[in-house]
Structures are given as C-alpha cells and as structure tokens.
Specification:
The complex is a heterodimer. Helices cover 60% and strands 1% of the residues of chain A. Chain A is mainly alpha-helical. Chain A has a two-stranded antiparallel sheet. Chain B is of the alpha/beta class. Helices cover 27% and strands 21% of the residues of chain B. Chain B has helices at residues 123-132, 145-148, 173-180, 182-196, 210-220, 240-248, 268-279, 310-316, 357-360, 373-377, 384-392, 412-416, 423-440, and strands spanning 23-25, 31-35, 45-46, 53-54, 59-62, 71-72, 76-86, 92-102, 159-164, 201-206, 226-231, 263-267, 286-292, 300-305, 324-329, 336-338, 351-356. The longest helix of chain B is centred in the last third of the chain and has 18 residues, at 423-440. Chain B is globular. Classes of the chains: A mainly alpha, B alpha/beta. The interface between A and B is large, with 42 and 66 residues.
C-alpha cells in the first residue's frame, strides 16, 4: 500500500531520543570519574537520583496527567545524572528524593513537561536542596581514590570554599593559621583529574571535557555556549586577578574549580533553557560567565554557577525575542 | 576554494546511486498522457482534437499569454482522448492522451546527436525558437524560460549561472547530462549569453560530481567566458537564491528577482533544452529522469518522452518492491508523493523515487525541545519553530514579522527536527497566509 505524505520525504536519523542518549553517553566519563573518586557513595547518590527522577516523571504522567509516560525520551535520566552530579557524595539519600521531586515535578512537569520548562530542572533541584539543607549540602567528602567501599570518608572544604574567607588583609598580616589552607589549594593537575573535594560530577574537569568533545563531535551542541561562558570567566577573573580582587586563585584555577565546567558544558547548554539562536546563545553564555564571577568574588557564596545559570535562564525568553536571525535578502545588498 | 551559501544548510546522506549509470532511452510506452499545464502560469490552449494524427514535435496546445508555454506531442500516434485525468499532484488536469504508433518526428526537427555550434545571428529568431519549443525551468519551478532570458527595462544582467548543483539526494539527471552532453550545455549557455547581451557564464557544480566537473572544466577551456565553479555539497545549494549568494556573494533582496542583482540562473537541463530548441529546432518533448530510491531494486537514468506514465519507468527497474512505502515525483525534499501510477512524467519531473518507510522517518511528533536546529538549518534565516508555533494555533498575526513569505520550502527544518515536527507544513501554511495578506495590501 503506497502512502501519501507531505514533503520532505526524508528525515535526519537523529531524533530527540538519540540526542538525549548521546548526552547520557557524554556524561559517562564524568560518572566513571565520580565513581573512582568518591566510591560507593557516589554510586548510591547517582542511582537514587536517576531512579527518583525517572519514577517521578513516570508517576506524574501516568496518574496525574493521565498521558502516556514520556520517560522513554531519556531526558529524565539526564536530569537525574545532573542532579546527582550537583550533590556531595555523603548526602542522606532521602534528601535526593526531595530534590528529584522538585526538579522533575515542580520545575519540569508543572510547567508542561519536556520543552516547556523555563529553568534547568537539575539546577533548581540542587538550589532547593542547597537553601533547605545548607549543612548537608556543603559537607564535601574528600576524594578516596581506589578505596571504593570506604564508608566514612573524611570531609573537607572545596577550593573555592577555602579561599572565599581569606581576605588580602589576613594574608598580608601573615597569620600562619591560614597558611595550611593556602598550601592545600590543589594543583592544576589534581583539579583536572578531580582529586579535590566537591560535588560528585564537578570535580574532574578532564572527564567533563571528554564529554564536551563527544557532544561536539556528534553535533549535539554547538561550541558557542561552553566557549563564551568559559572565556568570559577567564577574562573577568584575569582582570580581577590583575586588580588583586581574587588574590588567592588565579584565572586558570578559577576555570578548573567549582562547578564551572560542569555548568558550562552540561547545564548552560540544556536545549530547553538556553536561547534558540547563535547570537542569543552568546549573550546567554557571556551573562552566565559574568554573573558567575560576580557571585564568586563579591557575594557571600563561594560558588555562583548554579545561580548564574538560573538567573540567565529567566532571561532566555527575552533574549529569544531580541535575537532574531538576519533574514536572507534583508538589509544587505 | 569551494563556494557555498552563507546561512544554514544541511548535510543529508547523498544516495547518488545512479551517478555512474549512463543515460539510456526508456523507449516508448503504449500511451502517453500529456497535461496542458506543465509550467507556472496559464494552462496552454489545446489546438488538436480527438482522432488527429500527430508526430513527435507536433503542437498540441499553444501558449496562452506571456506567462505560459506551448505543449507538444512527444511521440507519433493518434489523439485518442482529451479529458481531465488525475495527475501527479492528485488533482485532475486537462490531459491529451495519445496512442503511440511510432517515433516519427515532425518536419524540420533534427533528432540526431550531431553537435552544432554555430549560433544563429538574430536574437529574435533565437527567442522565437525557445518560445515555440515550450521551454520552462526544468529544475522544478517551471517558470517559462523566455521570460527569464529577457532582461527587463532598466536592469542589467551580469552573470549567467548554469545550475548544475542538483542538491537533492538520489537525483542524478543533471549530473549525467553534464557528463554526457557537456558541449551542448556550454553552447546552450552561450546562446543564453547572447540573449542577455553578456559574455560570461558560470557553470556551478557541487563537489560530489567529480566527473562532471572534470569534463566541464576540460571543455570550457575552448569557450571564452564560460567557467566552472565548484560549490560545496550542501543542501539546498541548488536553490536559486542560495546559488546566487554562493557564486556572487550577493543576496536577492526580499520580494525582488535574481535579475535585480544582475543574475540569471538556469538549470543545466533547461540549458540543454535551449540548445536543442535553437540548434536542432527540437521542442521540449523529452527529458532525463532518474528512477531510483532506497527501496528500488536498481537505479537508472532514462531519457523519457514527456507523458510517459510512472509505472512504465518503475517496471523497467524491477517494479515496486516490498520495501516501497512512498513513490515520489522529484527529489525526497521537495518532491510530491504519488499513488496514481499512471501519473505522467512532465517537463518538471527530475526523478521518480521509491522510498522506504525508514528513510521518510515519519515517526510520531513529540514536544519541541527548543534545540534550535531548525534555526541553524534554515538557509533563509527564518525561525521555523516560531512560525510553526503560531501556525499551529491558526494565529497568522505574526507571519509578516517572521518573514514566512521568504520560505523557499526546501524542507531543511523538517528534515533536521529531532522532535519530528512537520515544520515545513506549518511554514507552507503561513506562507500561503502571508501571500493573502500581501494581496490585500
């Protein structure tokens, strides 16, 4: 039986599901790194987070909206992994359930499901947990390479956390009790590999960059957002470094520390919550970079990636309205 | 340096299965069905009646006004029926049915392959021959060629661009023609040059036709002013506006014609038809058709008489296979699906394709994930997702702001959409509404 359909009669082999699967694959190096660095705890956190996110979307579709579950598109899996990446490995598991509900239930499904949400679900989940349980959310277990089942890992501060509370004055006064922290700023190599305290997925810059490379090769995302985000941070922190506003952390360390690379590669590039056009993406990324630096250096919080991206998420509809591509034949001869 | 258009574009799989297959004669079917409207503009007026004996090249219907084109018999035989028949689009069209008796050509037509290079002196005579031959743009739009080769008052032609891009997957008709009839195409370009009063012609070919490029480059050496330009393989490189931007760096302003930026673009097949009309006095009664497809048993490039039913050609490559889900007239991007196997080949039919369900990828539509791929793909710089968003709600208040009328209907947006949203349908809807608004103004 021959069919009649409208043109085009050919479709790209890349469907939404394939794109999402590629993102999951791109997240795998960082998942492996997290398991290596934080051991069994990381495994527990990630598993709980993914299961909770997928279950939440499934239940809402099935029993609340009464529509066929949309969990098959893998987007809830990504949210689950990213939420897990944003948590310290020692977090009580029940808190993750709350975070997952907030991420999927409130941020995504309440707005209308995939494609309709204004804010990045995983980030809202993280920020909700962060403001609700500040104590647990900032207890950073130290890396425990090769010791998979170590239950009681030592806890310690993150690089940004260490340096936030050291003012130039305290340093120039030569107070020796801080010299321990200064000495404890991890080396670039350790920051690149992830041998430092922090959230599950953010510590290994190398693994995240591998994921970025994969996504660029598979054309899942374009290079604009990560590039402009990271360069903005690099340039602004260089200026701050020059004017001695961030004396303890040089621009390279700024790039490698905190959730910056995780945010620039996987969070800010989220299709749904980033602008549609290339110019829009550039404005968005530069905004994220500027806000990150401002929060890191001038606010009470040591890290500003989540807030920066969420604030810029709110500007996306405005950016999309403003950044309209130039139509062929308009304006130019 | 290969040239390309500046915005958007996609890279679908090429499927040029017939690129190495020489053109063969399809032969004559039992009946030919010749519609009187095979072009943009008014249908031609029938000048024969039932029972008339006709020869190949006999006028069947005369042009009705300037924007129209005459239609000729493609075979010798008897007019058995003048009726309204279901055409390729599913609409009923006035069609002359001829029972094929033989292959006798009307007087004065040179049906041989001998290359003639001496271009007639009188431009009026050249124009008359082109007009009488019923030549229209064979790339798909079907705009009568005499209009395009006349430079309007106050304009100046600078470039003749011969479009040998053929960017649609599967189609190889122009590619084969350039390989086998290169000299004729070059002479055809010189003829059009003469009409336009210019010396230079650019033959644009894309990278994935190395043999056509090689042959054309070799032959153009002996023709002053004719040059080959190699373009990047990218869809829709062969779109008129895209090709002009690629070759000249100019953009045709909104609501203007190519001639407004000094360009005339002619499809390679059309240029060959111009050669035949002027040098051989042969009307447009046959064309090259690629019969192929991912569901086809084999592929072929046929020289086909206008009016030959699709069925006749499909049977020549092994018939409709199990895998066949759709039969397409034209390319997979801009072609139409056909279920009537008697639908005839017209002047505009560049291919007949048997496509599988897998290729068409008609999966259920899912939610827009705002990936922006349609915006990146659109060669016109439009925002297909936004046009679709309004069109879906029958809200056409924003279509002028969104430039829906500048859509060239290439289908890049719908091809690339991972959520399988039929973006092209919404764009076409909006374009039609935009035209209505423009008419009112």
């Amino acid at each position: 039986m021959l069919k009649i359909s409208s043109a085009p009669h050919m479709a790209s082999p890349v469907s939404t599901k394939n794109l999402m699967k590629d993102v999951v694959i791109a997240l795998m190096p960082a998942v492996l790194a997290a398991l290596l660095i934080f051991g069994f705890n990381a495994f527990q956190v990630l598993l709980t987070s993914v299961a909770a996110c997928v279950a939440c979307e499934y239940l809402i579709c099935r029993y609340f909206l009464k529509i066929p579950p949309t969990t098959g598109d893998f987007s809830a899996v990504i949210t689950g992994i990213l939420l897990g990446f944003n948590l310290p490995s020692g977090i009580p598991l029940w808190m993750i359930l709350i975070g997952a509900f907030f991420a999927i239930g409130i941020t995504k499904m309440a707005y209308g499901g995939l494609g309709k949400n204004l804010f990045n679900p995983a980030l809202v989940g993280r920020v909700f947990l962060f403001v609700s349980f500040p104590q647990q959310m900032t207890t950073w277990p130290q890396p425990q390479f090769g010791n998979f089942f170590a239950i009681d890992a030592q806890t310690g501060a993150t690089t940004l956390g260490i340096l936030k509370h050291l003012s130039p004055e305290t340093l120039s006064n030569g107070l020796t009790k801080y010299s321990y922290h200064i000495d404890n700023v991890p080396s670039y190599l350790n920051m690149l590999l992830g041998n430092t305290g922090g959230s599950l997925g953010e510590v290994s810059a190398l693994a995240l960059l591998l994921g970025l490379f994969y996504m660029l090769c598979k054309k899942v995302i374009t290079w604009h957002i990560p590039f402009y985000y990271l360069s903005t941070v690099f340039i602004l922190t260089s200026i701050m470094w020059f004017f001695k506003q961030t004396p303890n952390l040089d621009p390279v360390a700024h790039l490698l520390s905190g959730g910056l690379i995780l945010g620039a590669v996987f969070m800010a590039t989220d299709y749904v919550t980033s602008p549609m056009t290339t110019n829009g993406k550039i404005i968005f990324a530069v905004g994220c970079g500027a806000l990150t630096v401002i929060i890191r250096i001038f606010s009470a919080y040591p890290e500003g990636v989540s807030f920066a991206i969420l604030i810029m998420n709110a500007f996306v509809p405005l950016i999309d309205r403003w950044c309209i591509p130039r139509v062929y034949g308009a304006g130019r001869k | 340096m290969t040239k390309t258009f500046p915005i958007g574009g996609i890279h679908p799989q090429k499927y040029k299965l017939a690129a190495d297959i020489a053109i063969t004669d399809a032969g004559l079917p039992e009946y030919v069905y010749i519609p009187v409207k095979q072009h943009a503009g008014a249908p031609a007026k029938i000048v024969v009646s039932q029972g008339d004996k006709v020869k190949a090249g006999t006028l069947l219907a005369a042009a009705d006004g300037i924007v129209s084109a005459p239609v000729h018999s493609s075979v010798s035989g008897e007019v058995v029926k003048i009726s309204r028949e279901e055409g390729r689009s599913g609409y009923y069209e006035t069609t002359v049915t001829i029972k094929v008796e033989g292959n006798d050509f009307a007087d004065g037509i040179d049906a041989s392959d001998t290359v003639i290079a001496e271009i007639p002196d009188s431009t009026e005579e050249i124009m008359r021959r082109i007009r009488n031959a019923g030549i229209v743009g064979m790339g798909g739009a079907g705009y009568p060629t005499p209009i395009k080769t006349t430079v309007p008052e106050g304009r100046k032609a600078e470039y003749l661009i011969v479009n040998g891009i053929e960017c649609e997957p599967f189609l190889c008709a122009d590619d084969r023609l350039m390989q086998e009839k290169a000299e004729e195409i070059i002479i055809g370009a010189k003829i059009i040059n003469k009409l336009l009063g210019i010396q230079k012609a650019v033959i644009a070919i894309d990278e994935n036709k190395p043999r056509a490029i090689e042959i054309m480059t070799r032959l153009t050496k002996s023709y002053i002013g004719v040059n080959v330009r190699v373009c990047q393989t990218k869809y829709p490189q062969g779109g008129e506006k895209q090709l002009i931007a690629a070759i000249t760096g100019r953009e045709v302003p909104i609501a203007k014609l190519p001639i407004d930026v000094g360009c005339v673009v002619q499809n390679a097949g059309t240029v060959f038809a111009v050669y035949e009309a002027v040098m051989k006095k042969k009307p447009l009664i046959e064309r090259i058709v690629t019969v192929s497809g991912d569901a086809a048993e084999k592929s072929a490039n046929f020289r086909v008489r206008i009016g030959t039913p699709a069925e006749f050609l499909i049977n020549k490559i092994g018939g409709i296979t199990e895998k066949t889900d759709e039969i397409i007239f034209g390319g997979p991007f801009m072609g139409t699906s056909v279920t009537n196997l008697k639908a005839p080949v017209t002047k505009l039919t560049s291919g007949i394709l048997l496509l599988s369900a897998k290729l068409a990828g008609k999966e259920p539509e899912t939610a827009c994930i705002r990936c922006g791929k349609c915006v990146d793909a659109c060669p016109q710089g439009l925002m297909p997702f936004e046009i679709a968003r309004y069109a879906r709600n029958n809200d056409f208040s924003q279509i002028m702001r969104l430039h829906a009328r500048d859509c060239i209907e290439c289908g890049s947006c719908a091809y690339i959409c991972p959520a399988r949203i039929p973006l092209l349908d919404y764009c076409k809807m909006s374009k039609a509404e935009a035209k209505k608004i423009l008419k009112k103004q």
